[in-house]
TrEMBL record:
Keyword Membrane: yes
Residue stretches spanning the membrane: 12-33, 40-58, 64-83, 95-117, 129-151, 190-212, 224-249
Record membrane topology: Multi-pass membrane protein
Subcellular location per the Swiss-Prot or TrEMBL entry: Membrane
Keywords: Membrane, Transmembrane, Transmembrane helix
Superkingdom assignment: Bacteria
This protein's GO CC annotations: plasma membrane
Database matches in InterPro entries: UPF0014_fam
Listed name of the protein: Iron export ABC transporter permease subunit FetB
Similarity annotation: Belongs to the UPF0014 family.
Length: 265
């Protein structure tokens, strides 16, 4: 079963006419979004066209030393995007985000490709690159939300944290409630997605497989696998980044290094 309709540049040009709708709404309501919409549209075309060419090349060569650099670039861009989305950061935040994403995506992706699916070879780009790409797309949102919540809460609740320290709490005990809130905040998007998937929304991967001619039940099976991977990767990534943030902010004498929390402006 493979009745995929191949899209031509002309088809995409026609689809681009749909952007007239949000642009017209932005102009009519004076939202000032038309310029950003235009830039985002151009970036979408350029970025996806570029990665399409790269993936064609990597799939054809099918060597690990071409796959790994592609994954590293994706990880670096995801780490940068995750920190930039947060209002505040701490010294070494970019490296911490990169490490968190590497751990979260590698553990979940390779446990699934090696144990569940049994991909051969381990670096098979047709499986590894799309799977890790989906993990990074969702994982960066999770760690960005978690970091943003943790640092903002600590700044806003500084008196409460200092009071707990003054009463004899360790630095870990003093900020523990806000660590829990940060992890919860980072996990909310994927949990919400899992609660409504199939009822309200049909995820992109499942929809893409169905459009490409795959049997719906097979597309559903892969989507279930992906949702579980994203949940695990997001949880791992958020927890690791919050712990690294704590290591940077906590003083050995049970004080908080407030000066290390800086604005992202």
């Amino acid at each position: 079963m493979n009745d995929l309709v191949v899209l031509t540049p002309w088809d995409l040009a026609l689809a681009a006419l749909l952007l007239i709708i949000p642009a017209a709404i932005s102009i009519a309501l004076k939202l000032g979004l038309e310029k950003r919409l235009g830039i985002a549209s151009v970036r979408t075309v350029v970025q996806l066209a570029f990665i399409g060419v790269v993936l064609e090349w990597v799939f054809e060569l099918n060597r690990w030393y071409y796959v790994v650099p592609v994954l590293l670039v994706m990880l670096l861009v995801a780490a940068r995007a995750a920190i930039q989305r947060s209002e505040r950061r701490f010294p070494g935040a970019y490296l911490a985000a990169f490490g968190s994403l590497v751990l979260a995506s590698s553990v979940t992706a390779f446990s699934v490709t090696e144990v569940v699916i049994g991909v051969e070879p381990w670096y098979a780009p047709r499986y590894v690159i799309p799977l890790i790409g989906m993990l990074l797309g969702n994982g960066l949102n999770g760690i960005s939300l978690g970091l943003d919540r943790l640092l903002n809460d600590l700044v806003q609740k500084r008196r409460a944290v200092e009071a707990r320290l003054a009463l004899g709490a360790s630095s870990w005990q003093a900020i523990q409630p806000w660590m829990r809130d940060a992890v919860r905040s980072g996990m909310v998007p994927i949990i919400n997605s899992m609660m409504i998937v199939g009822l309200v929304s049909l995820p992109g991967m499942m929809t893409g497989q169905i459009l490409a001619g795959a049997a719906p039940i097979n597309a559903v099976a892969y989507q279930i696998l992906i949702m579980f991977m994203i949940a695990a990767a997001t949880a791992l990534g958020v927890i690791m980044l919050c712990l690294l943030c704590y290591k940077v902010l906590a003083h050995p004498e049970h004080r908080i290094r407030w000066e290390r929390i800086v604005s992202n402006d």
